[in-house]
Fold these 4 entries.
Entry 1:
Amino acid sequence: MKKKQVLMKGNEAMAEGAIMAGCRYFFGYPITPQNEVPAHMAVSMPRAGGVFIQAESELAAINMVYGAAGAGARVMTSSSSPGISLKQEGISYLVGAELPCVIANIMRGGPGLGGIQPSQSDYYQAVKGGGHGDYRLIVLAPNSVQEMADLTMLAFDLADIYRNPVMILGDGNLGQMMEPVSFCKFRKRKLPPKDWATTGTAGRSRNIVKSLYLIPEQLEAHNRKLYRKFQTMKRCEVRFEEDIPEGCELLLTAFGTTARICRDVVDKLRQRGHKAGLFRPITLFPFPEERIKEVSSWVKAVMTVEMNMGQMVDDVRLAVEGRCPVHFYGRTGGVVPSVEEIVHEAGKILRGIKK
Amino acid sequence: MKDRLIISGFGGQGVMLLGQFLAYAGMLDGRRVSWIPSYGPEMRGGTAYCSVTISDTSIASPVISRPDTLIVMNSPSLDRFLPAVRRYGIVVANSSMIEHIPELDRDIHLVSVPAQSIAEELKAPKASNMVMLGCYLGIRGGLSEKAVEAALQKAFVDAVKRPDLIPINRAAIERGRELALAGN
């Protein structure tokens, strides 16, 4: 029997997925284009016996997340680009204190206040740290309303497993778009007990949640411990989707909305007789560098398409290591590239190859 | 079957609802659907549009740059989107609000409907979007009666608790469909 489908916005599906995954605390501050997340949470969280608070600012919201996560709760916040910049201090502290939580960034154009239309220009900020200090977030990049729900559910488990914040990196288009979504029952995995949480000292000595280490050797040891976690993420959590034909002449790499557009581009190029392929990272950190490295030894060329001036393409180039040419095409500022213009750009690259 | 629609008009003319209506009915008929609104500083009187895809196969890009179908409720929308319509595409234009509909030199099937006048005749001045919807359904077919009926329930009962609005909106859809089938 077909599963029951609901027509929802990506933002709503994400909020609903979070509640189904056992998130009971949401702290946020409004910003377009993610307002449906707090709107949905405001209605549904109290019904689920949880707490929704519209904080007085992004700073307050992220520090409420710190408090709830420190007490061992499943907690989430969401925002869009400028608001996520405001939260960076708190995110750095969350990683430092090894607190699990989920943070969604429904990206809009920047820098500064920018605009409110979809963008992918916070890629660097999301995958390279974002705040101060030497750290990483697990970054998940959904490309459909269904994945907005599914990856959010996954995000809570990953956060608990690694005691690290997980970021859902979507864009305004994914947040605003409606598609059918079906919610599978959330299967609880066996997770490590949160014996580090500050839940009261009855029967045990006190737990301290902090990111302050004044002795350099101690901080270095802490940094090394975090680094080992990031290395484990790289070994165990890489996720991607690919469709690469034998003898691939042009491999398109894209994430999120842009990957959906590139799917049409690849089909169109194939109709014209080109051997085109598509590679879509689902985790942006850990980045699927090993797989890109493998395929770059035999594909003729790579083209990365993003809604920015070229960010993920750096990671693609690091993985390709010069084994084949890596091209870039991007639109930015809230402009979503059309299938036609990407096909046109791809055509130029393919003509270069075929000469 | 795959139809990529852009539905556009003044804010307040119900273009978002019209798009959601189609997406919802399409979903109930077992099709793949997507709906994307233009979002931002749109307001009553400004121009708003949405992109809807209804397809028998999985939808790659939900973003529509070249629509198969254009439903336009006002002049600025027609001016903006007409050049993007694909060859052999369909344009449904609300002639109550669009004084000058240009001669088309391309292979596009244009249907003009005085949707606002019809809605007012039906004493349902806000239902011009449903007249347009009916007209679209008359031309394209493709959505079952059952799904359209369920979408009416969803739009007027589940969402706004106004079951009294269903008959008048159903009548508006029927009038639009009749006009389309009569060859307009």
Entry 2:
Amino acid sequence: MEVEKGKTAKYLKTKRPVPKEVTEQLKHFTKTKKLLLNALKEGDKTVPQLAEALNLPKDEVMFQLMSLLKYGFVETGEIDDMDEYYYYKIKSNGKDKS
Amino acid sequence: MKILEYDVLVVGGGIAGGESALNLANIGYKVLLVEKELSIGGKMILLSKVFPTLDCAACITTPKVSEIARHPNITVFTGAEPLKITKKGEHNFEAIVLQKPRYVDVDACTGCQLCEEACPVSVTDEYQFGLAGRKAAYIPFSIASPRAAAIDIENCILCGACERVCPPDCIDFTQTEEKLLVKIKSVITATGFQLFDPLKIPRYNYDKAKNVITSMQMERELAPTRPFNTVLRPGDGKMPDNIAYVLCTGSRDKSVGNPICSQVCCMYSIKQAQLLLGALPMADVTIYYLHIRAFGKGFNEFYAQAQDMGVEFVKGKVGKITEKENGNLMLRYEDIEAGVVKEAEHDMVVLSVGVLPNRGIDEVFDNKKLQLDPFHFINQTDILASPSKTSIDGVFVAGTASGPMDIPDSILSGGAASAETTSYLRKEDSK
């Protein structure tokens, strides 16, 4: 069967169902991303500040925040007065549209 | 089944396999290099700097890797592995190679990363050793070779966003596995090593205490393509100022089934300690060791340099690591020189994990037995006179597939394997 270029995902979807864990994982990421970005829109924050504001484990915040840093949503700001935690902020020219 | 013919099959595209392939290709042999990962370059391409010269690992690896990728006599298959290798006679082998689908036409992909931007999925990045995420449509890492995207089909939601944005239309979900029959005259096994999994030592609390990391994770934190903006604790993003190294994690330890020395941990830990003092000038670094084995050229001087820089060395066996509420870690250890059990607090702990063999290559050989040594590395049947020789004539071993060794020794071993392979092939040519 000839499958049209650019529409091959649709073809594979008919042959290979997407596992539930994968869609759950996507939902979790999208939700956490939204929470983190909304919290940062209110002002620059450190990882412990974000964890407290969102009532999330600090290591979870760190992992997701560093992913958002990589994806270009977030950038690193100044370090706090104790030289311990960096502030993170929304990247003004973030390109990622996902 | 498609049939391909080469002079030599090299299994494993790390630095040892790569070195063997290059040497053979340079003297005119046709080489097929088969690598199971999505990029060649092995573990070295992911390192920060190398001991004892502190040269940048990527700066040494990337030119070699591109030479391999562009060599007219080398064909590289990534995401591929041999399923079966049969010896038909002298200078006559047949291999069945499995090419797994990448769902991307590598030759057409320009590495533009638009698919990465478009992909909505975020999963754990294995090339950052779990410290950050990556997309399901992704380039494995920035200096990967080939620098082409791949689709992680296990985590893909098949939304098609990647293929809609791909300028050269190179994403192709219709790709399937392919088996190829490869005829060769000789084989080099350069299957490398895997790192010890510290979950096997529950006393070290690796899964629960988030600020206990492995040396490979620290290596990533120190590399230019690091996951964080600087060296930080994964547990809460704090910049650490009192870091401990636990040597012999999973090496020289009968209780975890690996009684031998991994040969590289002392030196890479000393290297990381020096790099940490550069990255975090206010930090204290303590290395808990059993013996420091600084045996190579320039190694002892490198050790002395770390001592001069202020790295603290404690002869002690760490028994237990517990996490405090603030994420700091209490190390309970035997101070071997004082003969007493002590406790010390650190805010980050690095487990210097050991080197274990990659298993399974012996099972690929079909009608001849590829002997392993008692530790499951490939046995060198004539270690002094012919160190690359294995129990099968015409099959040679390169690099850490034969045992733990550092980078210079792996390159040397790759060179030796290519020389012995040449000599084996020339025996046929001269007939």
Entry 3:
Amino acid sequence: MKTISVRGLTKEFKLGQQRRQYRMMHEWLTVRRPKQAAHGAGSFLALDDVSFDAESGEVIGLIGRNGAGKSTLLKILARILRPTRGHIELRGRVGSLLEVGSGFHGELTGRENIFLNAAILGMHHGEIVRKLDEIVDFAGVGQHLDQPVKTYSSGMYMRLAFSVAAHIEPEILLVDEVLAVGDAEFQKKCMQRIEQVGKHGQTVLFVSHNIQAVLRLCSRALLIDQGRLMQAGPVHEVAAAYLSIGGANQGERIYPEGPYAPGDSVARLRSVRVRSRSGETLATVDLGQELGIEMEFEVQDTTLPLFPVLSVQNEWGTEALWATDAGTEWHGRTRPAGRYRVIAWIPPNFLASGAMTVTAAVYSLTPRVEHFREVDALGFQTIDTLGDGTARGDFTGYIGAATRPKLEWTVDYEGRVTSASPSRMSAPRSDHAV
Amino acid sequence: MIYDSAPLRVRQFSRDALTVIDQSGAPLFRKIAEYRQYWTLFVFLALRDITLRYRQTLLGVLWAVLQPLLPMAIFTAVFARVLRPSTGGVPYWLFVLAGMAPWTFFASAIIMSGNTFASNHGLLNKVYFPRAILPGAAVAACLLDYVVTGLFVLALVSWRGYRPTLEWLLLPVIALITTALAMSVGVALASLMAIYRDVKHVLPFLVQLWMFSTPIMYPINLLPQPVRPFIGLNPMAGVVEALRSCLFGTPPDWYLLALSGLSTVLIGFAAAFLFHRLEADLAERV
């Protein structure tokens, strides 16, 4: 059954509208506002003529770069924003999870917060009462249920918030990637829950610029770029298209100076690129070649030992490789302020061929803090040519493995098979007979 | 407590309910149906406000009684001698308290609800629900105080020797009208404040001015003649007048009450208009 139908959806944001409002109060009070405001230079299209359908039971990924219009689309479907043009039909109850813990208040007890938050998410009193035990179990807050949540640990708080969110059962579920924040366990729970929801015949629209999550959860994906629907179809094709438009920028990505780059007051990401030994930036890498994943970051805080981590994912979302600076003189040490360039060298004939993405991160471990973790910072293609020297040898078929290293491969020839083994096989058979 | 009692009865929407979203927004009947669907949210928002107001306070709901009582004491101490107002035989302090009770409710309700859109910016941007629930629930949360104060005033009135009359049956109706008025003004203020934060700064003065232009600490006959016919335009004047007339059996000023009724309706329409103009774009503009 078709549950979502979107036709010609367009959303225009007016820039500088705020200032105009302050100046002209009387204008706001009049019934019609002057028309030129809608088409002036001071507006931009967040969504431009987007059309698509979704069936029940589908988990659809919505991918695109930051500011592509994904969240705007979700907000319009959730009726938070009003479309400028277009027509949408939604069949069934719509639930939206654009954040967890909406309306949570520290002074209220866990139980009170469950009720309030569930009501905000559109649940009725009867439903909440029915699911209360389940929610409490899932959150594992136990005897703290009637304590104010300001006394909770942050983990408990998040678990409680998520477990309420996890128990809404609309026919259409809109999920933003804010759900994907939090620790690994929490993320896993989120993912499992979304998977389950899809299997129960509900429609899920899942926004992310994390290709891995989309690949894992979705069968179909929509690619949005600069407000336009660029491609819709099987998730692997769309993911490949995302990489090719530079969803994860090809070969090199340089972040703007200042506070907009990923990072915090301790460390901030400056650039990521794939390079050769001689310093060229590579967007496509022959697997027979060595390649380096380079990250530049700035350190401002000199008191914390920092751990840079680089990892590579393939187009199936599998983490093919994870590396840190273990073994170097900088490992586990505090660093003087300044700019660092780290390069992880991947030997020839190690990765498999396909579309790869790089995740760049810097952590400190005691306490564990993520200073930045830029998922899909960068995309690059790995290819291999047939013949001598490659790890695939003469094999031309499809290889699904995450790595395809050229290993040391030993062969011992032990001569011709003798009659020793059949006699060993007969022993258990005679036991059985007795 | 409501948190684990039997379910409130709420109509379940059908599985195939069709929602259409376009530029023009939902039709009116649909919007009204939605408020019924979100009844649970309304109740819990109001409960949250009540809970938060009295959690970690020593006196709890007693504050509901103290709030009108303290200004009453001040006014009585200051004005009873100076003005020597003729209150038709009613002790001055009781006269003031009868006006202070609805006023305290009204003032705190419009201040609370007026802030709701501006202060719930995050919520409005992340979750959909019928927007007027926010100011509405804020007013509803003040209603408990109103009822407590009202009962307290009734007790004092009885203690002073006034016998309950049939007119006392009208008191809940007056309370209802005050609530409707507070919701209208609250929704209008919230809508305005969503766009012009100036309203936030103006509001305390507005409330003060409004209080002094309501006959709370003075009887209407103390007003200068040219102003007197217009005092009914202030709907709270009508509320206070009606309340006193019910409590103390003084003959009501019908002209004033009619004028107040009219202005209450007008304020209701104005609030609906303001809110309707803003509603669909609230998340964007707040």
Entry 4:
Amino acid sequence: MLDFTEASLKKILTRYNVALEKAMTPEEAAEEIYPKDELIYPIAKAIFEGEEDDVIEGLQAAIDAGKDPIALIDDALMVGMGVVTRLYDEGIIFLPNVMMSADAMLDGIEFCKENSETAPVTKGTVVCHVAEGDVHDIGKNIVTALLRANGYDVVDLGRDVPVDEVINAVIANKPLMVTGTALMTTTMYAFKEVNDKLLEKGYKIPFACGGGAVNQDFVSQFALGVYGEEAADAPKIADAIIAGTTDVATLRDKFHKH
Amino acid sequence: MAAKRYTSMAYASADEMTFGVSKYPVKAGLDLEIGAGYTIPEINYAPRPEAGSSKEKLIKEYQRITTDIMERMVQVGFPAVILETEHVQQMSNNPSWGAEVAHAQKTIMEEYHDEYGIKCALRHTIGDIRENRDFLQLRGDKYSVFLEAFEECAKAGADLLAVESMGGKEVFDYAVLRNDIAGMLYGIGCLGSIDMEMIWSDIAAIAKKTGTVASGDTDCAQANTAMFIGGGLLNKNLAHTLAVLARAISAPRSLVAYECGAVGPGKDCGYENVIIKAITGMPMTQEGKTSTCAHSDVMGNLIMQCCDCWSNESVEYHGEFGGTTVQCWSETLAYDCALMNTALETKNEKVLRDLFMLSDRYRDPQSYVLAYDNAYKVGQAIVKDGDNIYLRAKNAAVECCNIVNEGAAGKLELSRFEAKALADAKAALEVLPDDMDKFMDDCLTKYKSEVKVFLPENYGF
């Protein structure tokens, strides 16, 4: 069978992921940025490791030591999740780590809520859905996990969501943005209907769209559309909005890559 | 019919396999013989989004598409072509729509065949519509409509029947985002295989009744999901060593179609098809460098190595500088086939096969495992316990780990992250039981509790 020599192989392809890999392991990188507080550190570490039971144990210890459960959401859980999302953004850890950490964080938030009579304050609300007629929801599930990991309250409408249900959710929840995902060219047309009905009702909020067959040209055709090429763009668009960039044209300048 | 399990390989060695030649060629459509010594372009397309608004618009769109393709094939002098229509959901949910499209397409193809003698066949890939908004609904009313769609299309002119079925996807989607190798094995290898046995027994019976060809199924819903999430070299969403494990596990799952009466050609997006060809000897369609219109992959040349039909996956119908998209892409596919067929006619096919394979062999762990010599080894691991759907899927995964590890000891470079993901997966596989009943019981308990959209009754539990 034909084969390369080591030298000839290098003329054919380059494994850039190997060539550019960071020297530090994920665990070492996380250790450098964990909070130092002895009650918060084990919670943040348990979030990073995606260990739900250890998160609860750490929270219980902190509450026993006098910490306010609701304050712990921001001061411990979100700090731990911040380590995770930062390392993901830097390319040091991969998406499954984020998903497992997000699961652990959500368990932690529930535990904090159960141990308090006040409600937590989030960074804002985002309404997420999969286009009407489309049942492919893995992309939407990634988007919702990443939004929650970044401190947003998510109203997850699920898949194959009728246009009117999206509009009603916007009216009821006053989100800072709506996300829509679709796999198929034939279902993504529902995005335009969502856009038109939002405008008709007077809601000029950004509508971040992405997934399978969706592309920047298509999303740019409707007034509220902002194209997100990666699921990880969703929390970044939300962050830009709460930082004051609510204008769709400016968001497009920032996030449209093509 | 009951599944007739494969416990041996169709080919005595990997080197016997080439493109354009299969052990069991398939006659289909208008004078076409697939896997009988020549490769065939298989063009796939999607209507423009607005075409789905009515049945009449949809039929008109497919008539334009079909005419454009047939016209271009004749204009450039290509002797054979397959058209693949992947149903948009309206065509499978309303079987009469799918049937009318099939009839309209076949009428045009017959005209070209009558006038020019061009050999051709029409594949209809029915949409797996067995779900509602909240859950998969693999059995019951939706299943009846699903089967009706196959039968109506077969009666109306489709020659090759196919589907990309979704059994096990609810568990797989959960597992793949959590590096959960046992869940991937359960979703694809066990749940997927159970569902495949049900549907392919029925689809094969429809093909027999209608004189059409039960062609095959791909694990697009799961293994391709893993491949797409894995993305390119710099994407950080899934280790490619896990994506290739999903692929290896998908082979015994997609094999079930052929164990229940399908005869090929397996559908284009089944990158696992090279493993299945090694086991069954049946012809397979593949896609790679010519499917960049639909998605990127890391084995665009390699995957041509043993194809019998060569596809573009899908392209939206619209205009380009060189004609409509279906004209441009069918011409590209047909030129690739002309090169492969030239190699076959001049007895240079093994040289070209090896050039295709070698150009991508070390590009990625996914291409490394699917190189025909390694794919053959995965096939051997599957048939070793061919009678046990769990063990053969586990064997495929273990063999895949071994192949990547052996490669990494040589010229296959792995990132530290990929190597760790592989080591973790191998460790997880090593602690799994050998007893299928225990594995199934453990997984049923675990995923019923963790995956809220998992309904065991979908699988007859």
